[in-house]
Amino acid sequence: MSTHQMAGRMVTARDDIPVTVEWQGPVITAITYLDAPRAELPLLAPGLVDLQVNGYGGLDVNTESITVDTVIELSHILASRGVTTWLPTVVTAAEERIVEAVRCVARARTADPVVANAVPSVHVEGPFISDHDGARGVHDPSFVRSLDIEEVSRWREAGPVGIVTISPHGEHAAEQVRSLTRLGVTVAIGHTHASSDEVSAAVGAGATLSTHLGNGIPTTLPRHPNIIWRQLADDRLHAGLIADGHHLPFDTLEVMLRAKSIERAFLVSDSTEIGGRPPGRYQTAVGSVVELSEDLRLSEAGSDLLAGAAASLLDGVRNVMHGTSFGIHDALLLATRNPARLAPGVRPGVGELRVGGPADLMALDDSDPHGPSLLGVVQSGRWVTPTC
């Protein structure tokens, strides 16, 4: 088996260390420290990890025409943008649509060993969410329904469902969260009008994630208490944040990162099939009409409601660097190590550069004042041509 290598500056909390990373097949076999001029070397970082991807580049896992090839091609497209590990995210729909999407992901993992490494599990966002306007977002109200543990069991028979986003409102919500965790599912709180106390009860029953905190909530909230403060204050919850510059204003993003700390936060793209496409109006896979603006704001046509995102996860890293007080080391942790530690089914070492870990890494040009750009990507030991 051939040995490959890449030289660069490995980013750490204190400094950037010149190293050569070597790998054979999909595994890093050596990291050697170099005595070399730093200015001549790119920045090296683990491949990005995205726990919330509906689609990108004209492909979407929620379309009625989803196939195994959809998942495989989408995985390759994401890798070209630095995302080497991702969770296909299936939104509110009829049970048969959800099951078919999960089944296609399972078949893609069987058909392609790179996809098997890149896609550890599926994130199902809904259908057990709030039916209230605002909190529901653009999820189809005709398919929103009460949490059904047996239905989730049927999803898991179809494929590797790892995360389920629910709204923990109602008398029996905490008990249902407990039942979900017994199935081996990671429970996330999102698209909810639950009270602060209902949120706390769900966390006590085993919920561990907040799905795109600050979004998917009622458009108006009491000053205090409310479900944002409660989730920010609870250290048992890790908060997913969309840093596209639209879902969260930068001052809000700054405060949320300070409140949760870098250790308890992670970035997601929440990207849809519109990501990577030119500005305009589009019909989406889930039936809504959306508008993409020049600054990558994706909204429901004729409405101020956001309809997912069009920015990449690397865009989110750049936005953290330039819109908040946090630097590149923390920004990368939010999109690599942190989500990797929370992704059900993920391989050991994903999100880090270490001997014996996966050969998933990026070379970045960090000299651009607008933020780092991709120079090279390696996924499962194979070179990928970067496109952003």
Automatic annotation (TrEMBL):
Source superkingdom: Bacteria
Q: Does the keyword rRNA-binding apply?
A: no
Any single GO molecular-function term of the entry would be: N-acetylglucosamine-6-phosphate deacetylase activity
Positions of transmembrane segments: none
Q: Which InterPro entries match?
A: Amidohydro-rel, GlcNAc_6-P_deAcase, Metal-dep_hydrolase_composite, Metal_Hydrolase
Question: Where does the Amidohydrolase-related domain lie?
Answer: 44-369
What keywords would UniProt list here? Answer: Carbohydrate metabolism, Hydrolase, Metal-binding
- Which Gene3D superfamilies does its entry note? Metal-dependent hydrolases, Urease, subunit C, domain 1
What EC numbers are recorded for this enzyme? 3.5.1.25
Family designation: Belongs to the metallo-dependent hydrolases superfamily. NagA family.
**What is the protein named?**
N-acetylglucosamine-6-phosphate deacetylase
